């Protein structure tokens, strides 16, 4: 079968987006299905513990909250777990795992004959969904163009969630009075298994995120995926440029890990993780799940509609919610951006909650005629404002604002915030409705009011910017005088875009000031860290290396050679500055000094290739130090050192030696010109005649080891 089902370019991107949309559709469906079932007579007869219509006791209200919120608790648990396993498994495998667990949980639910089995099924299904919601936004954002990212994520995380919610209410309404009472609640639950199964089957053939592949050192596979996503030849300048942007961002963030979430230096990791975390808190504290998950019950109990009328109005409200989500889809990347939509949505929800409080009070306390109908109108208005400003926005923004190196754990952490506060809201809602009735809405009117200034002062605009551009914004905010928490908003408003609003490129990234600034930082031995701090991928301190050069030696004693120098400079991914060359000489001298002075061991991390590097055994050292090759002596050349990459790496050590044959090529002055995809491979790679065929690079770099030493 053809790779990625033979899809390339827009077709491949569309299918990836459709799979992500199906994952969010399942999420939205599960959010709404319980809200509809709480008014279905057959379901309440099977599980009387959750019946607050015929038995409005505090005991039943608590059980109802537990039943609905157990799913959210499972989502929270797996979102926390995704912090630790998401970057290990990768985006695609994490999604496959989540969908598998999801389907198992739904099967348990729809076959339940006891309350305990039903609760267990909801927790397991939620556990699978937590993996999905923590991973889908990152996977989709890393596979789409920057100028289309907002629109596409708003479709999947906005419109598809709303569609799932609408479908759940319509299925519940249509099957509420079927002759088979058991089917009235089992079938609506089972329907979502179909959507999850379709998503699983398609995702099996889809590519991994190219950014995650580069992050883990699998650069060869990443080039293939980038080529397929852009429908460009792997040698094309667009592929090369995008690869450079991602690689630069990774190298700047290369010393990151899960613990890097606590770092608040130049990278501003903690700053960005906090913004992502609270954007999800804001979404849930808007009160949306108070409305969506209990809408039919609210209409039945608080506004005195008949059971079937309450379910019908709830289905219509969910449909209107789905249609309203397309307003954001159309306008987010054309007119408004992120900040304005979020502030607009929060303002509208605040006003609707205030009016809802007043109208429900008039209906319940004073019995004012028509107040219940007016309150229903503002419920529609509340869901409309949320769909426009917040439904997909929180999932989009949490991906855009964090750097690649911590994107996996940070997204999992912020998603856990969504599910934690979702659980709190859903659990307390039945109890609040029973105890404080109409006053419940005042709480969420206040939270929406507080959201507006927080967005205005602390959240930068990320519209039309690539994921790598956002890294630059936070770096500049940290360098500027004043408070970085406030600086980043000002800088985002005035910093020019790398890409136009329609994806056009106003400049060449390789010639950009940021790329030159980055390369100067690499050549001077820093990775834009604090003074004196070095990236883990660049090895240990240079002063330690200099001490390992034998006494009386000079850097010129260990010449690089014209062949190596020219080949390094021809590599489009290498650093060609004088400072980089000087640093390379030092590294080479340190490598030889380590052999000549065994007592002084290099502190450079050792790379774990299966094949031993030249110089790793006593015989190698002896042969290398006592060469008697006549051709060597007649050439007048000094012994050539082992060649080391002149560029910092994404994985492993920068002190990895190449093969004997590459060393011999360097000694003889042979230059092997790379062609095809080898042009973009890291320097230090031996390019041999037999490896320049159409699949030569794959034969030299099997997927599990591809790029790890570079």
UniProtKB/TrEMBL annotation:
The family this protein is said to belong to: Belongs to the major facilitator superfamily. Sugar transporter (TC 2.A.1.1) family.
Record keywords: Membrane, Transmembrane, Transmembrane helix, Transport
The keyword Magnesium is assigned to this record: no
Organism: Lophiotrema nucula
Pfam families per record: Sugar_tr
Residue ranges occupied by any Major facilitator superfamily (MFS) profile domain in the UniProt entry: 16-463
TM segment ranges: 12-30, 68-89, 152-171, 183-205, 274-296, 308-329, 341-363, 369-390, 411-432, 438-459
Segments of skewed composition (Low complexity): 565-579
GO cellular component assignments: membrane
Cellular localization per UniProt: Membrane
Biased composition (Basic residues): 600-612
Ranges of Basic and acidic residues composition bias in the record: 580-599
Listed GO MF terms: carbohydrate:proton symporter activity
Membrane topology: Multi-pass membrane protein
PROSITE patterns, per database record: MFS, SUGAR_TRANSPORT_2
Name listed for the protein in its UniProt record: Major facilitator superfamily (MFS) profile domain-containing protein
Biased composition (Polar residues): 521-556, 613-637, 646-658
Principal location listed in the UniProt entry: membrane
Region (Disordered): 520-710
Keyword field contains Transport: yes
